[in-house]
Known about the structure:
The protein is mostly helical. It has a domain at about 15-65 and about 70-90: Serine Threonine Protein Phosphatase 5, Tetratricopeptide repeat (Alpha Horseshoe), CATH 1.25.40.10. The chain is about 70% helix and about 0% strand. It contains 17 helices and no strands. The protein has helices at about 5-10, 15-30, 35-50, 55-65, 70-85, 90-105, 105-120, 125-135, 140-155, 160-170, 175-190, 195-205, 210-220, 225-260, 270-275, 280-290, 315-325.
Amino acid sequence: MQQLSPAELAGTKNLESYKKYEQGCTARRQGNAEGLKESLKLMREAVELDPSFLRAWEELFSSYMESDAADAKSQQRAIAKKLEQLNPNSAEAHAAQAWIAYEDFELARADNEFQRAVRLDPSRPRPHRRYGEFLLACGRLQEARRELGECEALEPGFARTQFWFGDCFFVERKYPQALAQYEHSLRLAQHERHTYSRLGSLYEADHQILKAIDAFAKMRALEAEEPEKITQRYDTLRLAFLEGGEPGYWTERLVQAEAESNPEKEPYGLAVFHARLGHTEQALKLLERAWQVKDPGLLDVIVDQHWDDMRDKERFKEILTKIGYRTDWPLR
């Protein structure tokens, strides 16, 4: 019996396409903006060389999940359709449909699609990983840890699995355990910008504001923001904290968010800072607006520590119920 080549095992007979695919996977694992840019380029080349290469299309979908390009969402939907055309009964197709349903706030459909993806190919880590991330956002921590554990067993070296484990502890507000997982993630991938974002949020929650500022500045650098803008943004925040303490810091965060965000299309990013400053009515109005426009930031409302002082308020619980999230707190 003839042994299949690595390219054939991945699903292509085109060696050049397979090379592009493997190189693109490696580039994205750098965790920074340059790696993502290179991954998108290589994966597009891979599918051009072999338009039937299912896993290359799947990887391209995953890269667009991280992209902030104007056409990223439309590209995701187009690729999801392509995956369905190539193999409608594949884990890759169902996982893509699940993610789109999740971002459309169709949580029940997303859950069903994720489960189908896992059942169709339980030996691959990505369906477990995506489902674990979804379960975490929904506050279903025990189930999330189960799926992430499956992912870790199948792919022990994947750094992001460790920060998702950290997120589970973060949602429980167990900051030392969360920090240990985030640090583990960085030991595996030193340029993983998403880990620095999480570190910033953890330090904010633990009232270590100067450490939070440093972590967010590192994240921005890894996102390839201009150094002058990073310096200006975070020097201003440091000064605000040193002069006004945490209220000064949160006030400046709000000022910066108002300068950079559209309150009609992106109200969630403003709502969190009003919540931090104790502006309850304004925060809840913006949160309700976020639901009306289906602001994607709202998907993180359970994980987000900014709302901890409002979780017993009925208006807050009503919004969680509309989304389809649980309203009990603290989570276990």
